[in-house]
Design goal:
This protein is of the alpha/beta class and 232 residues long. It has 2 domains: 34 residues; 192 residues, TIM Barrel, CATH 3.20.20. 39% of the residues lie in helices and 21% in strands. Strands 1-2-4-5-6-7-8-9 form an 8-stranded mixed beta barrel, surrounded by 4 helices. Helix 4 packs parallel to helix 5. The chain starts with a helix and ends with a strand.
Length: 232
Amino acid sequence: MARRQGGRTRLRLLGAAFLIALVGGVYGWWHLHHWRPDRAVYPVQGVEAAADDGEIDWRAVKAIGADFAYIDASASAFARDPAFVRNLEAARAAGLQVGAVHRYDPCQPADRQSANFVTVVPRDAALLPPAVELDRLGDDCPMKVGDAAIESELMTFLNQVETHTGKPAILKISSRFQSRYRIANALDRNLWLVRNRFVPDYAGRPWTLWTANASLANEASEAPLHWVVVQP
């Protein structure tokens, strides 16, 4: 009898432990998908709208606390976000500052990529500095691209884009790109880093923008938002 009661006690304890773990996991998931940095620490906050985010209610984005929006405009040498102009105009109408993002492709020549960007993004002094996403590695290209060529072509691209926009670009560098090329150390541009929940430090120098939550649950878009803050 005592052995049977001991077995039941262990089962109850295991059940309680499982329930606690389940509740903790659900709370952790909810917290991660709803968390935003404290506005007292980071007064200026906003979003990045990716090409696959679907329809966005920009007035709702403004209502939940966004001050600005970076909107995907182009990628590589040929890809363009068909919703860029619509998103740009709607975000502005909602009272947000807006900027454009290009997803850089080390496999494609700089000239073709800059031509793609300037075709999509107007020359407009009111736009925020252009942002260049650096994530794909030259090792992933059909024909491997050397490190020196990566930096040289990227500089060509930046010079051409900055001539068009009249503003220095912001480098949105992933941790793997920085680890491979140390580009934050080589190029004197403001940085945009990405790390969910925890302040990023992988660039080795101060950042300007931080994607603090890449999957913020919200009612403003069909998909989670990329929530971004500005270094005060």
